[in-house]
């Protein structure tokens, strides 16, 4: 994605035709929507934008070397930066002059125990000499364990373009914003530092039903490259070597089924996207929303003005504290 305009705001000190990398790591699509929105807004401001999906922990040779600004958008994996994102950053060629803004996408928003999830990414960038000028959380409807009830889920989808527009303007205007996680936040993130191992166990335990069509949609969509399509061979029902030695009689029925490795990050995309609902969790079944998860469906249920007016009553309690603050900011932007 690029723009014909040839400059970025002088307040960031970027030269003409400055190049900005927007990199994202997404499971069920929330982080991707936000990243694409950032790319669109940066292009509106005249930046030349490269949009990159982080996948399999790899990094292009010229991924960051020619960039003045990195906008990193990533899901949260068990209160932490996903392992694949950490690998991508470690393998990158970030220059010391690079400035970065790091955004995490979480169903709970910027709430207690969820404020230190970006620290692993920030530490890697700073170790390479980059300057992290901005970090924040942008909520999206939760796809894990509990469902953000309607209309709050639809309000989150209506809110993020407004928030991204505001954050983009702030970053390009030179505003610096860094979060200050407390000891509890750091402790929870530290305890979850090896969460990728839990994800590996979850992925390897996913069950494949007989009605799997072998379409490969799960493998193509897996952000971690954790799924491959392999042959599954079963004895032919007419197989009887003692009475029939023909090719037809001894043939085996071969079908292609998904095979799960040890890189799962619990994004649950494969479970929600399967057209035949042929995949099911073999462990932690409580994590999967029983009636599925689809952002397009949520977005089609538009919130009403009354919903926004009654935000505080809809999002009351400590569990919704981060989401409530975020939606209150979006409501103020709607009213401008």
Question: Residue ranges: pLDDT <50 for 5 or more in a row?
Answer: 1-7, 239-243, 245-251
CATH topology description of the largest domain: Rossmann fold
Output the CATH class name of the largest domain.
Answer: Alpha Beta
Helix share bin: 25-40%
Rounded to an integer, what's the Rg over CA atoms?
A: 23 Å
Name the features.
single chain; 336 residues; alpha/beta; Rossmann fold; Alpha-Beta Plaits; five-stranded parallel sheet; 13 helices; 34% helix
Overview of the structural elements:
The chain is an alpha/beta fold and 336 residues long. It folds into 2 domains: 10-191, Flavodoxin domain (Rossmann fold, 3-Layer(aba) Sandwich); 196-294, Alpha-Beta Plaits. 34% of the residues lie in helices and 18% in strands. The protein has helices at 30-44, 83-90, 119-127, 152-172, 183-191, 195-204, 217-221, 247-250, 269-273, 295-299, 305-309, 311-314, 321-335; strands at residues 19-25, 48-53, 69-75, 99-106, 131-139, 207-208, 227-235, 252-260, 279-280. Strands 2-1-3-4-5 form a 5-stranded parallel sheet, sandwiched between helices. Strands 6-9 form a two-stranded antiparallel ribbon. Strand 1, helix 1 and strand 2 form a beta-alpha-beta unit. The longest helix is centred in the middle third of the chain and has 21 residues, at 152-172. The radius of gyration is 23 Å and the shape is globular. Residues 1-7, 239-243 and 245-251 have low confidence and may be disordered.
